[in-house]
TrEMBL record:
Matches recorded under PANTHER family: BINDING ROSSMANN FOLD OXIDOREDUCTASE, PUTATIVE (AFU_ORTHOLOGUE AFUA_2G10240)-RELATED, NAD(P)-BINDING ROSSMANN-FOLD SUPERFAMILY PROTEIN-RELATED
All residue ranges annotated as the GFO/IDH/MocA-like oxidoreductase domain in the record: 139-260
Family: Belongs to the Gfo/Idh/MocA family.
Protein name per its UniProtKB record: Myo-inositol 2-dehydrogenase/D-chiro-inositol 1-dehydrogenase
Domain Gfo/Idh/MocA-like oxidoreductase N-terminal: 14-131
Keyword field contains Protease: no
Pfam families, sorted: GFO_IDH_MocA (PF01408), GFO_IDH_MocA_C3 (PF22725)
Annotated keywords: Oxidoreductase
MF term (GO), any: nucleotide binding
Length: 351
């Protein structure tokens, strides 16, 4: 069933679930920088958390998600709750007839994402997943260049994420590096190699930043090699110890040229003095990609209002998660794996 457009041309009424770090950022963007959306309500099970965020933004705070979903002014829901709750909230919002934007990952198993796709399809509502890099100007321009044939046939691709650090290693769930961090890079590689599917995934990971937490399952450094069915080879890497700031980059090398994306500095400014050369580098994702975050939320609001599928769908979420799950299987086996085989054999949540 195709998404059904709400009537009228007023800004799309948004309810947000999850008032944590990324939820707080999204709520403020919706309220102040997304003109085709209106923040109606915020829900969070922690007493006072939703009201503290919603009140200054002119919205209502709830501790009961059901109250938010029952509000007729809420036409669509942005899910920014804890990862384990994503899949259930996607289904609940769909059953309430609301369009759904879900932060990545949209589930912790392919079965969970499949249920979300089925629920939103049956309800005829939009389902978008938060792969914000697609909405960053430089990544969008790179994809346009690939589509235009500017670099010929993609042969080598690279995507990396280096995070400023682990504030509390004990609070990081196992496999975070693949499921929450590198999943952005996997989507980027799929985005920049359109039409291609991964046929082999090999991941190497270790605890180099916080080795004392390795036995608890925390891996903080990883390199992934992916072979695609169009012959292209890709690498993705991540680290949680970029002391200089939040670093995101990409590259496409093709038969006719090369694209280089990102590089760290927030502004084209370098200061050289007696202490050396310095550049201004963002300290986090919301600081590096404010326009991209606003852009993806504007796209979601527009898709809900226009009754169409958004630019990034549940299918995209499934493809990226399939690579992440293949990485986990590869680390466990010590060798390369076929994503199709992993998808056919893995069952339930990844622990």
């Amino acid at each position: 069933m195709s998404p059904v457009a709400p009537t009228g041309t007023a800004p799309t009424g948004i309810g947000l679930v999850g008032a944590g770090r990324i939820g707080s950022s999204h709520a403020r963007l919706i309220a102040t920088r997304v003109p085709n959306a209106r923040l109606v309500a915020v829900a969070d099970v922690r007493p006072g958390a939703a009201s503290a965020l919603a009140g200054p933004l002119g919205a209502i705070g709830h501790t009961d998600v059901g109250e938010l979903l029952a509000d007729p002014e809420v036409e669509a829901v942005v899910v920014t709750a804890v990862t384990e709750a994503h899949a259930g909230l996607v289904e609940a919002a769909a059953h309430a007839g609301k369009g759904v934007f879900c932060e990545k990952p949209a589930g912790l198993s392919l079965a969970e994402i499949d249920r979300g796709i089925a629920a939103t399809t049956e309800a005829g509502v939009a389902f978008q997943v938060g792969f914000n890099r697609r909405f960053a100007a430089e990544f969008a321009a790179a994809r346009a260049a690939v589509d235009a044939g500017r670099v010929g046939t993609p042969q080598l691709l690279r995507s990396l994420t280096r995070d400023p650090g682990l504030v509390d290693p004990a609070g990081v769930p196992p496999w975070t590096i693949f499921l929450l961090t590198l999943i952005h890079d996997f989507d980027t590689l799929l985005f920049l190699n359109p039409g291609a599917e991964p046929v082999s995934v090999y991941a190497v990971a270790d605890a180099l930043v916080a080795p004392g937490f390795k036995d608890a399952g925390l891996l903080d450094t990883a390199v992934v090699t992916i072979r695609f069915d169009n012959g292209a080879l890709a690498t993705a890497e991540a680290s949680f110890s970029a002391t200089y700031g939040y670093d995101v980059r990409g590259e496409v090398f093709g038969s006719g040229g090369r694209l280089e994306i990102g590089g760290g500095p927030r502004r084209q400014l370098a200061i050289s003095d007696a202490d050396g050369r310095h550049v201004d580098t963002p300290r986090g994702d919301t600081e590096l990609f404010p326009e991209a975050y606003a852009g993806e939320l504007a796209e979601f609001a527009a898709a809900v209002r226009e009754g169409r599928a958004p630019a990034v769908t549940g299918h995209d979420a499934r493809r990226a998660l399939s690579i992440a799950l293949s990485c986990i299987a590869s680390v466990r086996s010590g060798g390369p794996v076929d994503p199709a085989v992993v998808a056919a054999t893995i069952d339930g949540r990844v622990r």
